[in-house]
Amino acid sequence: MQRVGLYAWGGPGTIRLLQVKYHAPRIDAASFMALYDDAALAEAKDKLGVTDMWVTFSWGFSTATEQPDRRFIVERLPNFAQYDIAPHAYVQGLNLVTDEFADQDVFCCDPHGRLLPYSKGRSFTCPNKPAARAVIRQRVEAACAHPFAGVFIDNLMFGLPPFMVRRDYTSFFGCACEHCQAAFRQQYGYALPTGPRRSPQQIADTLDFRARTLTDLCAEMSCITRDAGKTFGVNLYDPYWHAPEFHFGYSLAQLGPHLDYYLIENHALAASNRHLIPLIAADDKPVFVVSYRDGIGHDAAYTQAEIDAIWCEAAALGYFPALKATEYITDGTWHALDLSGIHAPNRSGCAERTDISASEPVRPSRWIERRLADAGSAIYAPTLRASLENTILAHVVSRLKLDTRVMRAGRRYTHGA
Ligand SMILES: [Zn+2]
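Above: the input record for the complex with zinc ion. Below: its predicted structure, written as tokens.
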């Protein structure tokens, strides 16, 4: 069966999150509030043939703050049944709004005990902390109590990614909290290296530790979801582009059995997704791909030609197209998908698209790089936080599209593990 996805954050929670995540954003609130209305679903079905939508259930605010968000989507679930669209409850993964959980032991930390920023106003949570796991578990259970078709966990990321990776040396990555230290010592028999990783063995053990922890978390959430008769999925980003063990923490091979479909989110709208053919061809699970032009926070509304290109490539490669339906920023205003000027995509006449360049093996470190990793690891978290929280720095980072550049160009390697 041909399936089509809409990756559709909407409702009051999405508006609130934009206000947390960005500095004084100008928001077309009405567009986010209308995203799950009858008229929007009818248009999505009619023009795009949408079969699946990932809809906002929990953005990572406190449970009390989120109540209106959850009520908003639950009240609209009958609309989805009317148009035969499967709604997947979107649950934020391993990050929470920092101020809303200030009194709870949920957050990751760096070797100096500082929180790890996920975005402005949000910090990474640690899957080894019982309180953090309880937050996700309660949210998955809460979603399972309603007639969603599935539960989806976004941002399955175990702490910060390394900013430098070499075969024998990396900068700090992951989490250095006391729970991670205790669990690591128990499993590997030596102390968790909390700063840079200074040997191939330390690197391999850290990757194994993070992957196993995330697999365990997913297995638990998948079990809860499947027991409720629903499908389970997570955002994989792009497992073939970004060496996920390093940059997100998960192992695709380990996660696979716990997932009912694959959802890939990448920056390949202007490139090709041919690198995903092994995943599309190797498994009978559905593969949805949502490809951005430059990514969340950068993309103006897509043109008909871009939507045609997505549908065309999906047909050619055999994946299910998914379109982001939210967080467009056009002429400085944040808005949701507007299909009024769009017609049914043309799937024929694919334009030539450039393959992303092949991954390269990680090379050994040089002396200067080891010193850079040492010095940078100590200031990594606070520097990153400043670049997100400071209005001017955040503006510069956004204008330079540094996040997109890093995702596109800085992570194409295989680590040989
Ligand atoms: Zn931890």
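Notes for the reader.
The chain is about 40% helix and 15% strand.
The longest strand covers residues 52-58.
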